[in-house]
Design brief:
This protein folds into two domains: about 65-170 and about 300-320, Response regulator (Rossmann fold), CATH 3.40.50.2300; about 170-295, Response regulator (Rossmann fold, 3-Layer(aba) Sandwich), CATH 3.40.50.2300. The chain has twelve helices and 14 strands. The protein has helices at about 25-40, 80-95, 105-120, 130-145, 155-160, 170-185, 200-215, 230-240, 255-265, 280-285, 300-315, 335-345, and strands at about 1-10, 15-20, 65-70, 95-105, 125-130, 150, 165-170, 190-195, 215-220, 245-250, 270-275, 290-295, 325, 330. Helix 2 (about 80-95) packs parallel to helix 11 (about 300-315), helix 3 (about 105-120) runs parallel beside helix 4 and helix 6 packs parallel to helix 7.
């Protein structure tokens, strides 16, 4: 008599093997197995075994070009995000990585861009999270699909929970505190913090940080960055109505220019500080119209994630040790603007 062997599949089912085992041979195998079981039962109690951590599938070393999708919440023509894009593309050129940059200021549309990248099976994702909840499902789906994700700019506190390898950006609360402290050092008493993107958690953190660092009276004003003329009108109305306002903190370099115009139009003595740099802000600092800029060095937010994903793909390196990689804040004022300004001019600061 002979018996068929059964091969078990990984999903728990089995298939019949065509190999037949003679009855006598099978009997001998069963007797030997029984002996092994008896031996193990007689060796005495063993220490409780700990579960083995999953190590993932063993694969061959990666080869071929890495393809990385960089997806931001920037709007078309935004000087800040152009610098991020420049950083990502330069890293791609230096490292031989194919970088594809896309952006959409609408959270729902940005999530769709992430979904499209996942469907295209990119090798890595870099995503800014101004509205983390809107992106949660899309980012988690990317991680489940085996695509490594690095978050940038906003959403630091949600990054690890969504499964990202690390977060690259400045801590917005710390940056806000530094701006508030700077205004306090300048002797200011009442500060207006201008928010230009509704629902952007990073901007809320900046204003909260400014309140903590300033320790004086801080008011907030909501404007719409997509309507610059209206933003200027709202700032002008605020400083004209409340003459005690002697400091204005804008959270974007484009809004800073509008704030300067608004203050000059009504003859206010308020001084402007801003987040982020562009050529207009550099000129305004040199002219004394803006007293400082909080530079988060966003070029690094484009460059570093591409480098990190390349290291992860080629050498299984993870950067940050579970903590964010900070690119700022760096305060730029009259003492440093000449040096930094040349890099702003070439699109890397």
């Amino acid at each position: 008599m002979s018996h068929r062997l059964r091969k078990w599949r990984s999903n728990g089912t089995y298939e019949e093997d065509s190999t037949r085992v003679p009855g006598k041979t099978l009997k001998a195998v069963l007797v030997a197995a029984a002996g092994l079981l008896l031996l193990s039962a007689c060796t005495g109690p063993k220490a409780e075994e700990k579960p083995v951590a999953a190590t993932g599938p063993v694969t061959s070393l990666p080869s071929g070009p890495l393809r990385v999708a960089v997806i931001s919440h920037g709007t078309a023509g935004d000087a800040f995000w152009n610098v991020v894009k420049n950083g990502a593309e330069e890293a791609g050129r230096q490292l031989g990585v194919q970088v594809e940059y896309n952006s959409d200021g609408d959270p729902g549309n940005q999530a769709k861009l992430v979904d499209n990248a996942v469907a295209q099976q990119v090798g890595g994702l870099v995503v800014s999270m101004a509205n983390p909840e809107a992106l949660k499902t899309s980012i988690e789906n990317a991680v489940r699909a085996g695509i490594p994700v690095i978050t940038i700019n906003s959403g630091e506190d949600k990054s690890a929970g969504y499964g990202a390898l690390t977060h690259v950006g400045q801590n917005e609360t710390i940056a806000g505190e530094e701006a508030g402290k700077k205004f306090k050092e300048l002797g200011k008493k009442k500060l207006l913090c201008v928010v230009h993107e509704a629902g952007n958690v990073g901007q809320a953190q900046r204003c909260d940080g400014a309140k903590a660092g300033f320790t004086g009276d801080v008011q907030t004003l909501q404007v719409d960055i997509s309507n610059p003329a209206d933003a200027e009108s709202r700032i002008r109305g605020a400083v004209q109505t409340d003459t005690a306002l002697d400091a204005v903190l804008t959270l974007n370099s484009q809004v800073a220019a509008r704030a300067v115009s608004a203050i000059k139009a009504v003859g206010s003595q308020a001084q402007v500080g801003t987040f982020d740099l562009n050529t207009d802000v550099v000129g305004a600092i040199k002219a004394g119209d803006v007293v400082f800029a909080v530079d988060q060095q966003q070029y690094e937010q484009g460059y570093l994630p591409v480098q990190f994903l390349k290291l992860y793909r080629d050498n299984a390196n993870v950067v940050g040790g579970g903590k964010p990689v900070l690119t700022g804040p760096d305060l730029v004022d009259k003492s440093t603007v000449d040096t930094v300004g040349q890099y702003v001019q070439r699109g890397t600061r």
